[in-house]
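Entry 14. Ran structure prediction on the chain below.
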Amino acid sequence: MPVRFCHQCGTGLPTSARFCSNCGAVIPVMESMPGRPLVRPRTGRQIAGVCLALAQSNGWDVAVVRIATVLGFCFSGGFVGVAYLAGWIGIPEEPLNLPGAYPPGI
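Output, structure tokens:
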């Protein structure tokens, strides 16, 4: 079973923990941590969500990724444009969460 550790006291906690059982410190939510699956989110995107997907999956600031992409568009001779299109086509879109729908696999 995967274990997370409290940043305050170092106690081992289950991955579903929101608070440390020893000191009561708040444990960051897993979705904002690096290692999130590479999917294009439906909310927060500017054009296709490629920059946001890369930023969320690697734990980077989305503004830095977007600035680097724009600079890459200007100075790479079209390479970043081709890579962005490949990401748009190749990175799957986040599943649509409909109210009352069963979770996938059930």
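DSSP finds three helices and two strands in the chain. Will compare against last week's run tomorrow.
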